[in-house]
Amino acid sequence: MIPPGYIFVALLGFLSCKEKEIKHHLKNQRICKTHACKEAAKQIISYMDTTVKPCDDFYRFACGRFVDTAEIHSDKVDNSTVTQVDLMVEEQLKSVISEPPRPNEIAPFRSLKRLFSLCMDEEKIDARGVGPALTKLKAAGGWPVLGNWGNKKWNFLDTYIRLRNSMMGHTSLFQIDVEVDIKNNSRRIIMVDQPSLGLAQELLVKGPNDTMVKAYFNFMVDIAVLFGANKKTALKELRSSLHFEIELAKVMTVKEERRDYTRMYNFFILPKLTAELGWDWDKLLRGIMPKPISIRRDEVIIVVEVQYMRKLKQLLRSNSIRQPCTETGILCAE
Questions:
Q1: Strand, coil or helix: what is 303?
Q2: Which fold has domain 136-332?
Q3: Is the pLDDT of residue 4 over 60?
Q4: Dihedral of CA 17/21/24/26: which sign?
Q5: Mean pLDDT to the nearest integer, 215-240
Q6: Strands laid side by side in the 175-181 sheet
Q7: Domain boundaries defined on the chain
C-alpha cells in the first residue's frame, strides 16, 4: 500500500507542473488591450461584488453590485445588461439618424432620416391632431367607440386590408409578414403569427383587476376621449374590448414555448389555409400585397401558431363582431 504522504507529495508535484503550463499558456495568449476591450472589462468588474466568495454565491459575486445599483426606467419593465446595451445602441442610432441627409447617401438612409425628422416634428404633429387617424378609421368602417360604426356593413377582412394598407392597427388579431424561410434562406415566405397586443400577454392574463391592466384600460379610455369619444361610451365599449383582448391573450402561446422553431414551422398551401382556419385568405393576401406581387393558388404560407389561429376562430364565433371591431380600433388609435 502506498503511504498517503507519498500521494500528497505526488499531487503537489503534479499541480506544480500544471501551474507552469498554465502560466506559459497565458503568457503566450494574445490579450485584447484595445479601448473597447478595456471598457468592457471595466464594466464587468463594476457589476461584481468581490466581497462575496464565488464558491459561496457565484451569482452575487458576478452580478451583486449591478443588482444593488441598477434602476428600472419608468418606461421599462425590467433592467439588465442587455437592456443597457439596447439603450446605448438606440442613443447611437438616434444620433446618426438625427443628422441631415447627405447628398451622397443612398436612398434608404435619406428616407429614414426624413421619416425620423417628420416623426420628431411635434409642432406639426400637434397642429394636425388626430384628424388623419380619424379619416383612416372612418374609411376602414368606423369605430364603435366613436359612434360612427356601420355594423351591418362591417367586415373584418375588408377592415384588416384597409388598415394594413394604411399601416395602422393591422396586428390586432394576427399578423402577416414576409420573412426569410428558416429552412431555405434563399427565399422569402409568407408567415402568419399571433398578434402583438397593446399590453404584454403575461400582464393581460392577470385580468382586469391587475394594477397594470387597470392602467392600460385608463390609457385606452384617454386615447378614445382624445379621438373625440364620449367618456361614458368609451368606458362601456372599451371595457368590453379589454375583456376580448384578455381572452385573446389567454389563447396565445406564451413566449417560453416559442423557442421550438420546428414546432412553429407549419406548412400550408392557400386552399388548405382557408379550409382549416377560415376566412378568405386568397382575398386577404391579394388585398395587402403590393401590386407587382402575385399570389398563386399553391402559395406556401407558414402558420407559426396553428392552435392560436384555431382558438381565435372559436373565440370570434362566441363574441359579437363589435368586440373585434372595437379592439382593432383601439390598437389602431394607440
A1: strand
A2: Neutral endopeptidase; domain 2 (1.10.1380)
A3: no
A4: negative
A5: 91
A6: 175-181, 184-193, 300-303, 266-269
A7: 34-70, 82-126, 136-332
Name the phi and psi angles at 322, rounded to 5. -65, -40
Q: What is the pLDDT of residue 332?
A: 46
Contact 325, 215 (CB under 8 A): no
Structure-block grid coordinates of residue 48: 461584481
Q: Are 248 and 173 in contact (CB under 8 A)?
A: yes
Q: Give dist(CA 190, CA 304) in Å, integer.
A: 10
* Per-residue model confidence (pLDDT) at position 20: 60
> Which of 184-188, 214-218, 283-287, 328-332 has the lowest average pLDDT?
328-332
Whether residue 333 is predicted with pLDDT greater than 50 in this model: the reply is no
Distance of CA 331 to the CA centre of its chain: 14
- Contact predicate 308/220, CB 8 Å: no
Cα–Cα nearest to 272, from 290, 297, 248:
297
Q: In 3D, which of 141, 168, 143 has the Cα closest to residue 241?
A: 143
Amino acid letter, 234: A
Alpha carbon distance 208, 216 (integer Å): 9
One-letter amino acid for residue 87 of the chain: L
Residues 312-331: what's their mean pLDDT? 65
Q: Is the pLDDT of residue 216 over 90?
A: yes
